[in-house]
Predict the structure.
Amino acid sequence: MKKLIILFSLLLSVQLLIGQNINVKTIFPEQIEKGKEYTVNITINKSDITTFAQYKQKLPEGFSAKKNDSQTAIFSIKKQVVEFRWDNLPTDSIINISYIIIADTLINNFELQGAFSYVVNNQRGATKSAMQKYKLNDVKNIAIPEGKSVKNTVNDKNTETEENIYDFFNKE
């Protein structure tokens, strides 16, 4: 009978975890230029979880970060990992946090992705944000998301082709 109760409790815990609508959306910069600061915005839909949780994101070598808006979280950065940690999550079902990244150097290709992990009924859960892949565009040393074009900062329009990108920067 005791084993049956334990099994039932575990199944109920798993069902509660599956039933949660937990997700994380991270908005990364449209392009990253060496030496400039950019805000990374994170929206966490945590449902009704109020226990321990954390959001982590590994930064590429050559990047640094600093606190922007941590709400009630404890912000830290160690060994290229940005972390927001809560001993107890706020009661609001949606949390908005952000931090600043600075690209001191840019590497050829890199990825940015965050992960939100939490505990419910002594069971660990986690969800990841969509991954943003960047490639280095040698012109002006700017990293842009794969499949995107360099943002034309003069008239705030996107250039369409690689040739347009070179023409734009050569006119300066």
User: Anything to note?
Assistant: The domain at 21-132 is CATH 2.60.40.690 (Immunoglobulin-like).
